[in-house]
Amino acid sequence: SGIGKGSVPMVCSTPCGNPYAGLVSHLRASWLSGKTRPMEYRVAQLEALGRFLDDKKQEILEATELDMGKPSFEAFFSEILLCKNELNVTLNNLSQWMKDEHVDKNLVMQLDSAFIRKDPYGVVLIIAPWNYPIQLFLVPLIGAIAAGNCVVIKPSEISKSTERLIAETLSCYLDNDCYAVVTGGVPETTRLLENKFDYIFFTGSPPVGRIIMTAAAKHLTPVTLELGGKNPCYVSDTCDVTNVARRVAWGRFFNAGQTCIAPDYLLCTVEMQEKLMPALREAITEFFGPNPRESPDFGRIVSDKQFQRLRALLGSGRVALGGQTDEAERYIAPTVLADVLPSDPAMQEEIFGPILPIVVIANMDEAIDFINARPRPLALYAFSCDSKIVNQVLERTSSGGFCGNDTLMHMTLPSLPFGGIGNSGLGLYHGKFSFDTFSHHRGCLKRGMGREPLNAPRYPPYSRKNFGL
Ligand code: NAD
Q1: What is the Cα gyration radius of the chain?
Q2: Residue 14: pLDDT band by 50, 70, 90 thresholds?
Q3: Which pTM value belongs to this model?
Q4: Fewer CB within 10 Å: C terminus or N terminus of the chain?
């Protein structure tokens, strides 16, 4: 661990001996030089990120396979394609996004210029988690570069192979005076956070989010916190059970359930639970065959610690489907738990694995009360053939994002903002929202030197004015 190969050598060490002070001050000097501001520079760096994705495609698939047995289609879709999509949207729109935004003026300023300048913040820190180890550093990085910032990237130390790949190869593509990778876990990140950054973009768990925000507060650094939590999924009695089962099973078991916006638990009536069970069994068998352990399309749990935590949750409710585990492989079968109680362990924490609890409720009103009684989730799902029911759930709840009659798909649209609310985070990104997140919206007024009589009414002595006071 330490400063990755991609980073510049330390230029100096401050008296307090912070190991990253030299790196941060080097990046700050680059930012102050104005190098990252021209559009051509930003475009060149973004295009280099595109080449990184093309050249390293195979290595990315291999590294994420080693880290969590990520199936290659899932890695291609979520780590490469989504990033390329973001890159294309950004490159196609950057000149428009960068333009000054002219705003309404009052009578006195009719001949002046009032506009919003999209200024880079300066030196930005991006901290990423392990579950989508490429996408979750790269998509914020696209926004940070597009907005003209210098960036320190801190990938997760848990997804070791991907961390190594990023540290060893990203520097071959990006300007090393402006973009650096710092590797390591808690001790390294703690030291890194002692430095003053101009913006911190963090993706990870709510408890660590609090630590990041506390560290940022010492320097009054603004933050985006992309956090997690339990995402409810309400299934009404009026729905196409087969389609619901396929869409829920896909969202829950993609990346072996290690997805921040995965449906965390189902809320439905006892009758719907009965109907869903054979449909979920069929969907799971169709996706992963009779023995998902042998399927090339089903991933593994990232670490022993996560595996132990997940295995302990299998005691909640009753195992209706799956439930098999293999510690050596860190395998947990796609599992559905029926009749789970709100007091069961599976309902006390974000599951973040291939386990789907079903909590029985009496009706939609009870489901809505259940959702509103808990921390506001990152994503909320509602399934019904009756659009009024989907609308009711949307209108009477609050969450970071919402998707009716499907799971995960809302995050694939760069035109939609992505982010949490309350316990699931603060701030937005994706597409133009990323650019805006990493830009300071600087309110500017440029006046002419002449036309002084227009200013006369505001100058003292005020006693000469007659404003009718
Ligand atoms: P985590 O919070 O443990 O770690 C995230 C990052 O923070 C890592 O780079 C890690 O090195 C660093 N870190 C951990 N502890 C730290 C500390 N004490 N001080 C400073 N830095 C520290 O999260 P994780 O386990 O990597 O990821 C899982 C969590 O992330 C889940 O809660 C999930 O919902 C959430 N998540 C959210 C999103 C989103 O877009 N909102 C996306 C993916 C994951």
Answers
A1: 25
A2: very low
A3: 0.95
A4: C
